[in-house]
Structures are given as structure tokens and as C-alpha cells.
Amino acid sequence: MAKAIRYVKSRAGVLYYERRVPKSVTDNPDAFRAYFNSAPTFRCSLKTKSQSEALRRAAAVSKKFDLLVAAALGSDAVQSTSSDSAKRSKMPLTDVSPDLLSEISEEFSLNTIGPWQHQFILSQQDTRAREELARMANERELDAEKWSESLAEPGFRSTNPKFEAPIQTAEAYAMHKGINAPQGSAALSLLAVAIREGTLAGEAAVDDLLSGHSRLPILLKTTRANRSTSAERGLTLRDAVEQYTSERSLNPKTKREAFSYLAIFEEAVGNKRLSDIERRDFHSFIEFIKQKPIGGKSQGSIEREISPRTVKKKMSLMSSAIEHAISKDRFIGPNPAKNIKVDNLINQQDKAIMPAKRPFNVGELNLLFQHSWFSGCASESQDLLAGRVRLSDSRFWVPIVALFTGCRAAELGGLMLNEVHLEDAHPHIHVRDNVYRTTKKGYARFVPILDGLRAIGFDEYVSRVRAKGADRLFPDWVLPKSTKEYEKRDTPWSNAKIIRAFNRTVIQ
Fold it and tell me: In the chain, fewer beta carbons within 10 Å around the N or the C end?
């Protein structure tokens, strides 16, 4: 699921999955046409406005996408992927058995009816939820013929990922669950039959729900089962946070923050079971945080009340952990940490104490670039004294490149020379994840290299650095600590000596 999140987009409030088709597929016109209709972007509506439900569905769509890519690259890729996945996890392949087939059938039945039940419950008191249920029902009616074709005809294979046939779903399911069901085997056919039966049972339950028949028995059956499971497991908030941080692809900083916030919650409220936590517990959590001032621990740091933005971040992580438990059917909602109005509980910070961040104005920039780093210093070591020595290292170029590109500190600190394209028809910098750091939200982008930057010698600087055999644009930008995990985060790049000197000395 973690991999799928980055491909979830929103349009008019409805969430959808969007992903570029790999070049290895587009380079093969026949396969590209057969599996992706020659469309360079794979796009599939997730048919929901609920973020948690969209993320759950996105994981399944992501598996479909991987399967289509594997099929386009050759049937052997699909079969080997299943065994390779099992080898990577060091787990033996699971053989198909009657019990497993029953479990799979029930799983697909509940997965089919589940979103409809959830939306039906919400619609009882919420007008927008009622409208969304009507939209879902209308779209289902429009798609009924295509769904019927994909479900009812054995041997059918769909080229439209929205209407995947059971055999295609079975291939993806076997691959990702580590089931011993290679292509062409009877085991794979049995999986497809179980998936078809479960999906059809779920669709029949949806029909009953929408037509007004057997609503109460359908809802009570699965709701009671989920409550029983939740009670037996006695899932606590700590359990939920541990599962969330271990099962999601989070960066080390976010994981540390999650457990830090959990410790504060337990100090204020205790380690409660999710079923026992109420909204007022999170109000108590916020009040507890509010009483602890922050800052004032180092020279120049101002002691102040915590900001609403910081509290929202803490609440968001706690809420996400609970939402993750709900999405995994480990806890039946509602989520007590969701939609709490933090701004009503925390005072906005006094602007006189903590003024809002703002960009430099033109006059300030003109003063800034009169500093000896840019206008000439006494020597390489006496860079704060005015003189005739012109710096040509990171001290000069980092602020200049930041001004002309708008790149953040970590983006520049980890920028590699092979991401600087001066020889291109449109000279640019390719900002993307690399071995030195990640980018914000994993987004890659192209930043034009302006003529003004080149006019002051940027091309010559790049040539000098390349001639020295460096792999980064600013090789003298040294981190205060050096481990791969540490380097990939923003904080160490921003805390490096050059940035501290610029912020604390040059700007002052």
C-alpha cells in the first residue's frame, strides 16, 4: 500500500490512481497496445471520496498495474515474480487448499460489499455521503455490462484494468501473497473460481443493499464479526502505531515522531484499547501538550506556546495509525482522532514573538549580496572580512543557485552532477530522488537554468567540479553526520556548516 499512495490523485473530490507506463513497455508497440491501449498514462478511478478507502483500493490497483507490466514484458515475468517475491520474504510458497479457497472467496465477497456498507451507514445522517452513495450506484449501473462480461466468461482477459477478469486478479493475488499457483496450473484456475464466486456473492449483497432487501442482516453480520475480532485482539493505540510504522514505508524521522507523540499520549491518557478511546481523550492529549512550552533551550531560541500547526501534525500521525488499523480490518471505527478542530483548542502564536516566515525583498537581497562571500573577502579562511579574494566554492554558489532556482537546501546539497544538463537544448536541473537524499513527497521536476545564472560563470563552475571527479554539484558541502539513512533526510543538509553560517552570520 505504501508504494501505491504516491500515485493517488484527486479530481473534483474523487480520488483516482494514475501512473506512467514504463519505457520498457512503451518501446514494444504491440504489447503497449494490447495491455495499455497505447495510453502512456495508466489511470483508474478509485470510486470513492474517502481517503482511507482510496488507499486500500489503490493497493489493489497497483498490483493490477504491476501484473499488466509483467504480462507486457513477457509471461515468464509473471510466473517468476511470484516465486521471487517469496524468496525475498524468505517464506515458502503456500499450496492451494479447500480452506484457502474458502478464505479467498470470503475475502473478495467482503471486499466487494465493504465499501458499500460503509457508505450506506454514513448516508443515514450525512447528505454528502448520501449523494456519494447515489453516484456510486449510478456508476455501477453504467458499468454493469462490462463487469458482467469480465466476471461471467471463463477464459476472458480484459485489456481495461478497470474491469479485470478473475484469472488476471488470481495471477496478481498469487504473486503478492506467495501462493503456489503458476500460470497454466489447476491451482491458478481454482484461485480464479474462488475469486469469481466471492466477487459475485459480494455483488449480490450490493444488489440487496441498494434494492432495500436484507439490509439489516447484511450489515449486522459483518459488523458483529469485526467487533468480535477487535475485542478478542484488544488492539491498543500502541499496537496500532507499531503496526502502522512497521507496515508503511515511512522515513525514520516520521517513525520517531510517531512514537514520541504516542509517549505523550500515554503520559496524558494511558495506553488504552482503541475500542475504549474517545474523542475527549484526544482533547486531553491536546490540553496536556498545550501546557508544555517549547523553545528557549539554546541561545537565540524563544520560549513559546506550541503552534496549532505542530499539534495538527501530532494529531495527524495518531489519526493515520488508527485509520491504518481500520483499513486492515483490525478495528471497526469510527476514528476518534479524526476531524478534531485543533484551531479551537490551541491559540495562534503571537506574531510579535514568532513573526511569519517571508521571502527576502529586493532591497534585502541587494544588501545580502554585498557581503564578502559574494563581493570579495580577505582570504579563503577570512571569508567574513572584505578584500579582493573572490570565493568560487559552495559559499558563493549555493545562495546564488538557490536564488535562481528556488530549490530547497536538501535538494541542492544532494544534487548530483549528472542531474545538471547544460548541454541540453533547454538547459535544466533534474531534481529527483537519488542516493544522497529524497525529494519532498517523492516528486521529480525539471528546473530551468536561467541565462542570468550562466552569465555569472555557472557553466565554468560545473566544469571545474566535474574535472575534479566529484559526483555532487557542491562536494564541499559536508554533512555534520554521515550515514546513508541520515543523509537522505532534509534536516542534516539544512544543519550543515555552510547553511548555519549563511543563516546565522551572513544574513545577520
Answer: C
Statement: residue 332 has pLDDT above 80? no
337 HSE (CA, 13 A, CB side): 26
What are the pLDDT digits (tens) for 383-435? 989 999 999 999 999 999 999 999 988 899 989 999 999 999 999 999 998 88
How many Å is the maximal CA-CA distance in the chain? 88
Placement of cell 567574513 in the chain: 384
pLDDT at residue 141 greater than cutoff 60 = yes
Distance CA 57, CA 426 (A): 40
User: Both ends of the chain: CA-CA distance in Å?
Assistant: 46
Q: Which residue has the cell 531534481?
A: 431
Amino acid code (one letter) for 299 = Q
Question: Average pLDDT, whole number, for the chain?
Answer: 78
Q: How far apart are alpha carbons 73 and 77 in whole angstroms? A: 7
Q: Assess contact for 437 and 411: CB atoms under 8 A.
A: yes
- Contact, 101 vs 86, CB < 8 A? no
3-state SS record for 167-186:
HHHHHHHHHHHCECCCCCCH
Q: How far apart are CA 201 and CA 478, in angstroms?
A: 61
Residue 398, all three cell numbers:
549555493
Contact 333, 324 (CB under 8 A): no
Please give the radius of gyration of the chain, using alpha carbons only, rounded to the nearest integer.
28
Flag whether pLDDT at 77 surpasses 50.
no
Buried residues in 390-416 as b, exposed as e (16+ CB within 10 A): ebebbbbbbbbbebbbebbbbbbbbbe
7 near 44, Cβ under 8 Å?
no
**What angle, 0 to 180 degrees and rounded to 10, lies between the N-to-C axes of helices 166-177 and 186-211?**
110
Predicted local distance difference test score (pLDDT) of residue 5? 62
pLDDT for position 101: 85
State the Cα angle at 187 between 184 and 189, rounded to 5°. Answer: 65
**What is the model's pLDDT at position 195?**
85
Interstrand relation of 420-421 and 41-48 (parallel, antiparallel or unpaired): unpaired
